[in-house]
Write a structure and sequence with these properties.
Residues 5-180 form the Transketolase-like pyrimidine-binding domain. This protein is an alpha/beta fold. The protein has 13 helices and 14 strands.
Length: 348
């Protein structure tokens, strides 16, 4: 019988198993030892491993990231938790100029086995400075790996792979995903970098959903299925290194590609995926492509504006339908009760 865990439980279990396996793994960050335990992802770990291995930090992202890099260079495997990705901007020099480049600059004599967990996405009205998905910034930088798992299975496997990796890994979690549930093996396992997953097969259009937008793409697939269109849905999982081959193979078949992101489309992950696909398939006939993501304005706070700002399953389905038909049709699906959004349950 399959064992079911939530995304939160999967992240916590991965951390627990790796801390139990390897005494060099430590966990720290703002409020990791708080009773709410970062949505429950660090629950019970300070009691089990003690305050020397699990501890809260000052609100000083730059300094604590520098400390984390120093620990990693000295042989520790830190997991540095940030409640919001937005505030990684305060640590960009540490991450981009030091963590990412140390192995290269010291001719492979050192490594930085650092995992940086950060949360992205809308929730209960967090607005301009607390809702941004900025992982494309880190995809741009050689020396950093970037992963954005969607399912509890991938959350556990990717986090274990990230902890065991000898290079820095940016581990991206969408808030709403923490309430997803799915099968997760009890034993430790890894989901290694560089392999995407086809989550729904199809012949008519390829949908690539990043992080939480994978959930919305699967909703769109169901809406399209109702009208006889078969969408192939792909979860990239690891954004750097990116498995472009799986996406290219799908688009070679469907000839239509829609990439849905949790960030702005300009210079984003969706733009990079589409650029690589079109480079690979140029000269092989007509291919239709579309990016979806944040509207080109600052992240809003109110639910009514959020509904316009963020892609959802019905908007994705309508966009994919137009790609298939080759024209703006005006079709928009009626909402199905079984495909409604998961409600976010409150702060950390």
């Amino acid at each position: 019988m399959e064992r079911t865990l939530s995304y939160t439980e999967a992240v916590c279990e991965a951390t627990d198993q790796e801390m139990g396996r390897d005494p060099s793994v430590i966990l720290f960050g703002l409020d990791v030892d708080d009773p709410k335990a970062i949505l429950g992802t660090t629950k019970g770990l300070v009691d089990k491993y003690g305050p020397e291995r699990v501890f809260g930090t000052p609100l000083s992202e730059d300094a604590m990231t520098g400390a984390a890099i120093g620990m990693a260079l000295a042989g520790v495997r830190p997991i540095h938790v940030h409640i919001r990705m937005d505030f990684l901007m305060l640590a960009m020099n540490q991450l981009v100029n030091i963590a990412a480049k140390s192995r290269y600059m010291y001719a492979d004599l050192v490594s930085v086995p650092l995992v940086v967990r950060s949360l992205i996405g809308k929730s209960w009205g967090q607005g301009a400075q607390h809702s941004q998905g900025l992982y494309s910034y880190f995809m741009h930088v050689p020396g950093l790996k970037v992963v954005a798992p969607t399912t509890p299975y991938d959350a556990k496997g990717c986090l274990i792979a990230a902890i065991r990796d000898d290079d820095p890994v940016m581990f991206v979690e969408h808030r709403i995903l923490h309430y997803q549930k799915g099968p997760v093996p009890e034993s430790a396992y890894t989901v290694e970098p560089g392999k995407a997953r086809i989550t729904a097969p199809g012949e008519d259009v390829t949908l690539v959903g990043i992080s939480y937008m994978q959930v919305e793409c699967l909703r769109a697939q169901r809406y399209l299925e109702d009208i006889g269109i078969q969408a192939e849905v792909i979860d990239p999982i690891w954004l750097s290194p990116l498995d472009i081959d799986t996406i290219v193979q799908s688009v070679r078949k469907t000839r239509r590609l829609c990439v849905v992101d949790n960030g702005w489309t300009s210079c984003g992950a969706s733009a990079e995926i589409i650029a690589q696909v079109t480079e690979r398939l140029q000269g092989e006939g007509d291919i239709r492509v579309k990016r979806m993501g944040f509207a080109p304005v600052t992240c809003p706070t109110t639910p009514n504006l959020e509904a316009e700002f963020y892609p959802n399953g019905r908007k994705i389905a309508a966009t994919a339908f137009d790609l298939v038909k080759g024209d703006a049709t005006g079709w928009f699906p009626e909402e199905r009760d079984d495909l409604k959004d998961i409600e976010f349950k409150g702060p950390f």
